[in-house]
Sequence to fold (533 residues):
Amino acid sequence: MTTTDTQPNDQTKAEEKDRVLIFDTTLRDGEQSPGASMTLNEKIKVAALLDEMGVDIIEAGFPIASNGDFEAVSEISKIVENAVVCGLARASNKDIDRAAEAVKPAKQSRIHTFISTSPVHMKYKLQMEPEQVFDAVVASVTRARNYTDNVEWSAEDGTRTEQDFLCRCVEAAIKAGATTINIPDTVGYTMPDEYIALLNMLQERVPGADDVIFSTHCHNDLGMAVANSLAGAMAGARQIECTINGLGERAGNAALEEVVMAINTRSDILPFTTGVNPEYITRASKLVAAVAAFPVQYNKAIVGKNAFAHESGIHQDGMLKNTETYEIMTPESVGLKESSLVMGKHSGRHAFGNKLEELGYELGDNAFQDAFQRFKDLADKKKHVYDEDIIALVDDGLAKSDERIKFLSLRVIAGSEGPQEATLSLEVDGEVGTHTATGDGPVDASFNAIKALFEHSATLELYQVHAVTAGTDAQAEVSVRLEEHGKTVTGRGADTDTLVASVRAYVSALNKLLVKREKTAPATLVASQGQAG
Fold:
């Protein structure tokens, strides 16, 4: 064979060697965040966008956790075209069987099974001896392998596991048929140099390590999730597990957008590629923030409101001369479309549709008509409608698509002389009710009216207001967090009237709480193995 004939094959091998698979767990680990519960339709929307943007593996949920989770994984398996659909399972037969059933409709499927391997987890959480854990590794991977040849095994709390025992478990998982080995930094404890050393050690000591893909799954408790994930890639890991906006338990997971853009921007020292189209990043960030009711902090890397904003005079001067002075990537590279077009009450459907497209939204006819009508209503109240206003009203509409409780109207009597009074109308499961309540201020009166119309035992943990744009006619965006029997949900609402926004946010949280009630986990979840992360 000539040199010319071998060159394409060599190039292909080099490309495969440098390709890092992006494993998105927004719908599983991300949804474990307190208050981040998503409806079935919301999960399908997120999964479809992840598939479109080029994510390699979508961990769609934890099928044994509830009927809702099983249904979500199953339905996502039916609609995903390109990505591998993955279901999570503990090291038990019921978990693995349920996961296999859920991902069965997928064109490409994976079972991801795990068990804790650190001394503290084995002793206090599992209450199992190391040999029992070792046997469970072999049994679980073997059972999963009977369903599919794409099996991932995770050593939960792997970075705090004794190295000899970790080597034994990894070797056993490989021999049993695992094709991906995940070494999670479950509690965000490790540092990049330690993580590199750990992965190098495993690849050097474990027989068969060259035949599998090593994966990272790093949490952000010390702010090191992305740094550790990239360090893992430098050490030979070729799969990074991450979430949109870094959503996840406690301080979250490695953020997909940061991982992808770090690889794209610093190819000089991160000589890798991913299959993710970065121009979808902003759109995905907005969608996940909306459906999970988790606002993105303003100074969040890549997708925060201020990520491409410059206020300092020195910075502005540099930007005017050359954008590279203060921007290491362009807004367009992550799908952020900046526009000077001001929307107002005279704007028509065409202009509004173009604006939605610029902002990364694709709405169906009904959703578009609803968003356009609310835009026109807002434009009647405001002189100028800014991008942030449109984002707020569209996100608010998306979040309300499956509501059982609907806000209809609010009338408030407020001022320095009490009592403050609120008359509220809600539609609950199709029935309209109206109630007048008093309270210590108009917000308290409004919330008391909600409780009278829809009785519940949830307690208010957070009430937060911020202005979407500047000016006295700015929309207020309100976040409300409710807690009931250990379940926590967060709702958001936006309106030019802060009190209306407050009621919308409370109602949004109640709707999410209803969803969470329906998804209450079965008794099997209480078992000692817990959830992966």
Q: What stands out?
A: Residues 13-292 form a domain with the TIM Barrel fold (CATH 3.20.20.70).
